[in-house]
Amino acid sequence: MAVLRKRGKTYILDFRVDGKRVRQSVGNSKRLAELALKDVEVRLAKQETGFYIKAVSITDFLEEYSRFSVSTHTFATVRRYKAIIDHFEDFLKTKLSINRLSQLNSKLFDDYKMSRRQEYQARNTGRMMFAKTNTINMELRTLRTILYKAVEWGYLTSNPLKNVKLLKVTDAKPYRFLSREEIDLLLRNSTEALRPIFFTFLNTGMRLSELIYLQWKDVDLLRSVIKIQPKEGWQPKTGSREIPLNQETAKLLSNLKRTNRLESTFVFHDRNGKRLKRDLREDLIRVTKRSGFPDVTKIHSLRHTFASQLVMSGVDLPTVMKLMGHSDIQTTMIYAHLAPDHLADAVNKLSF
Fold first, then answer.
1. E strand residue ranges, 10-57
2. Which end of the chain is more exposed for a tag (fewer CB within 10 A), N or C?
3. What is the rounded CA–CA span in Å between residue 226 and residue 274?
4. What pTM, to 2 d.p., does this model score?
5. CA geometry: angle at 205 spanning 328 and 144, to 5°?
6. 50: phi then psi, degrees, rounded to nearest 5
7. What is the bridge-based pairing of β-strands 120-121 and 219-220?
8. Domain 58-152 has what CATH class?
9. Identical fold between 58-152 and 180-342
10. Closest among 239, 101, 200 to 157, alpha carbons compared
11. DSSP secondary-structure letter at 253?
12. What are residue 275's phi and psi, to 5 degrees?
């Protein structure tokens, strides 16, 4: 129920949404204030006040999202998302009054950042550990993605994490990329099924999800390009882009298409022609261990390798940024130190 009150010459709408009191100024006109009162009462009845669309508990939404994740994501992604959701739910146990999606706000997630930075007792070890800055930022990005699904499903009108700033990274380890000798060993020691996948990662710099969702309609062999574009149930992280194919990658994809006996719509698929769901990170760990460099444990290292080898070959950073699909040149700048001679040559072109 909404009530119209007058404070001085100004009319105030007073009502509650999900137990939260809301007061809004609606001006000096009594007629307009009465119209606003009727409008709010109608919207309250329809649960369309702008604070939330449907009264959904955080627990119910996260359970629903987890079921969606299992049916949509790879095993590795499902496992990672579950761990992040578990961390967030542990944090919410300290906020007993917050139980609905409509109560999530930026202050809550700022508190979450700080709580994750504090010491916690490591499971099974008894040692005191710190959550690393990169880990916290990854969790925030994942929770932001999850909450965008709540907006899409009509449970929220806006994402409460949209404007939450990530932490400044000061404790990150140097990224790892493969030398040309290691690339050769990786490909030689890979199975027949894995070799084309790793080769494509190394020669295109695609993200894991981009490769998994890659379909033949995205591969233009006439123009020798791969198109990273939205699919049903999946969106590229930083929008659509095109990646040119070198001759060897175009030849590999052409052979894969010619031998696609299952007529799968996916370039890389399981034995039934469905979207690939195997744990490629575990596959990579086995191959790199066998190849003699067990410190390479992440698929993202292959993406780093693509960018690093380009920069060391003299490709300028804005071009690398475009190929990688970075939304900010600062992300690409982590590779700048690999091109000291190239940068020096650019400065030496000045003649005054």
1. 10-17, 20-25
2. C
3. 20
4. 0.61
5. 50
6. 100, -15
7. unpaired
8. mainly alpha
9. no
10. 101
11. H
12. -55, 140
Q: Hey, what are 337's tokens?
A: 């130190």
The position carrying tokens 């009264």 is: 55
Q: What is the DSSP string of 114-171?
A: HHHHS-EE-TTT--EE---HHHHHHHHHHHHHHHHHHHHTTS-SS-TTTTPPPPPP-S
Domain 180-342: assigned CATH number: 1.10.443.10
Question: Which value, in Å, is the radius of gyration of the alpha carbons in the chain?
Answer: 26
The full DSSP string for 66-96 is HHHHHHHS-HHHHHHHHHHHHHHHHHHTT-T
Q: How far apart are CA 348 and CA 248, in angstroms?
A: 35
DSSP letter at 207? -
Taking the CB of residue 347, how many other CB atoms lie within 10 A of it?
7
Cβ-contact 275, 269 below 8 angstroms: yes
**Cβ proximity of 57 and 99 under 8 Å:** yes
Sequence ranges of the domains in the chain: 3-46, 58-152, 180-342
CB-count exposure of residue 302 (10 Å: 0-12, 13-18, 19+): buried
Q: What is the pLDDT along the chain (352 residues), one digit of tens a residue?
A: 678 888 888 888 887 765 667 777 777 888 877 887 777 777 666 554 444 455 789 999 999 999 988 887 777 788 889 999 999 999 999 998 899 998 999 999 999 998 888 754 444 455 556 678 888 988 998 999 999 999 888 888 889 998 888 888 766 677 899 999 999 999 999 999 999 999 999 999 999 999 999 999 999 999 999 999 988 878 888 889 999 999 999 999 999 999 888 889 999 999 999 999 889 999 999 999 999 999 999 999 999 999 999 999 889 999 999 999 997 887 888 888 887 665 566 666 676 6
CA atoms within 13 A on the CB side of 91: 20
